[in-house]
Amino acid sequence: TIAALDALEILDSRGRPTVEARLTLSDGRAVSASVPSGASTGRHEAVERRDGDLSRYRGRGTRGAVAAIDGEIAAALIGREPRQREVDAALRALDGTPDKSRLGANAILAVSLATARAAALVAGEPLWRHLAAGAEVTLPRPMVNIVSGGLHAGRQLDFQDFLVIPLAASSFSAALETVVAVHAATGELLAERGLSTLKADEGGYGPALPDHRAALRLLDDAVRRAGLEPGEQVAYGLDVAATHFFDAATGSYRLASEQRTLDAAELAGYVEQLAAEHPIVSIEDPLAEDDWPAWAELTARLGGRMQVIGDDLFTTDLQRLERGIAERSANAVLVKMNQIGTISETADVVAHAKAAGFTTVVSARSGETEDDALADLAVGLAGGQIKVGSVTQSERLAKYNRLLRIERDLGEQARLAPLPETLRSA
Ligand code: PGA
Ligand code: ZN
């Protein structure tokens, strides 16, 4: 039984306040969980509660969300069993808004996640096994940020992420090793070329490159320097994050780094061209978050050859995902717990996506804490792929290292998720 719930304002990897919840069981054992925060957020995400008091943390304080947990939420949950669906339903009902803005999605997710940990503790299981609920588990294939642009790197490049996807590795640890080799080689190349090796928000490099092709050529060079062949052992993913350079007034996409303005079809053509020159097998948010018809056109054009992921498009929201499935707007969904605010709703999105033949990529946010539950979620829901940012910075490594431990604990049973059809085109 839940005996107590309280919360704390802590800091995330950008030094901004976030929420940690602590749940104490009637036997005295306690668990904690903290929540991340995005920068390139989608308009349709659940709303995190910020104090708006400009005298603290530039208005980003989370004392209101903390007070909601200490007060209303604790009062509603104390005495209940830590059963996920019941607790999540109670949280939604108590909040009463469609976007979880009253209590705050940050307060709600912290409690939902603490409930998952408490339930696993009561069951005497690791979190991943508890989340799997008897279903088969897999280790996720990592999709790792090497070069950053967009809102995470001072808009150095318009596209937000240039990622490396290991294709040939047969275990999670081998996949991670491959990516780390490419990351290290990239740093060496940048240093040799007199370019900055400073890190962007997610730990990726944010060098002053002239354009997107230069970033892709840098990846090609780094992969070869690591002794690998682009398109063989590794392929690339892009997170275009197009919402964030879309001009709603003109319905066009402004590529500042290339001093060009494109319409949706031209942007799709541009991506197609880049994919002809480099082994790009995955593309996220290639179009703006509400440009549904253009998404369907792009997916019809490119979806047979690559993974087309909706992040800002779907915001881990079941209704938006269902529309995307019906209209074939994409063939994959990015899964971020804090976009929707509860574990059970997150699990429902993964289940629906898989049933429709969509691939799923469980994802961290650009602002993260040292909480490692994302790793358990990716394994327990057999998410297939995981996107955590780069392979530096402890808020990222908490997740990778947790996956290494889970892989060890699974022993003979550890299986890397199979390579989906959409990633095979390289
Ligand atoms: P965000 O970025 O956490 O800043 O939204 C991650 C992403 O766009 O995938
Ligand atoms: Zn994204």
From TrEMBL:
Catalytic reactions on record:
(2R)-2-phosphoglycerate = phosphoenolpyruvate + H2O
Its UniProt pathway annotation is: Carbohydrate degradation; glycolysis; pyruvate from D-glyceraldehyde 3-phosphate: step 4/5
According to the UniProt record, what class of enzyme is this? lyase
SMART domains, alphabetically?
Answer: Enolase_C (SM01192), Enolase_N (SM01193)
Boundaries of each Enolase C-terminal TIM barrel domain copy?
136-424
The secretion signal range is none
Q: Where is the composition biased (Basic and acidic residues)?
A: 42-55
Q: Which PANTHER family match?
A: ENOLASE
- How is this protein named in the record? Enolase
Q: Give the species.
A: Conexibacter stalactiti
Q: Which gene encodes it?
A: eno
